[in-house]
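Attaching the record inline, Q. Sequence:
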Amino acid sequence: MKKRIEIEAKFELLNVKELLKILEELEKDNNAKLVEENEIQKDTYFTPNDRNFLDKRPVAEWLRTREEKEKYSITYKNWAKEDGENAKFKCREVETNVDDIDAIREIFDVLKVRELVVVEKTRTSYLYKDIIISIDIVEKLRKFCRIRI
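Structure, as predicted:
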């Protein structure tokens, strides 16, 4: 099994135009590259019938399928706090591409895993050095900036 370390921060974005202007300036100077523009992602979140991932606050565990263009993926995330004085949060994340999203949904149905919510967003991403900076516009919600290393 591959060990992957990913650092990610997400926060509400109050001024999309301002951030886009900065990223476009970086792109003009060849310091950043547009890697994804107005890509539509449809995320469907699921939970087992015998427990609800939403019962625990903040939500620390989720199971998601993603549809993006003609590609599909499935992701499971589980946040946990380490023990000790300088405890840190760590996230176990397992993600893979899938060919048949309908088969995944059928498996979930057999295993009594039910759909919770569907979230659709439009994502624009830039690569700046080794950092991916994304602007997510989530339908019926808000706008976010996601920074991933």
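The longest helix spans residues 16-28. The two ends are 20 Å apart (CA to CA).

More tomorrow.
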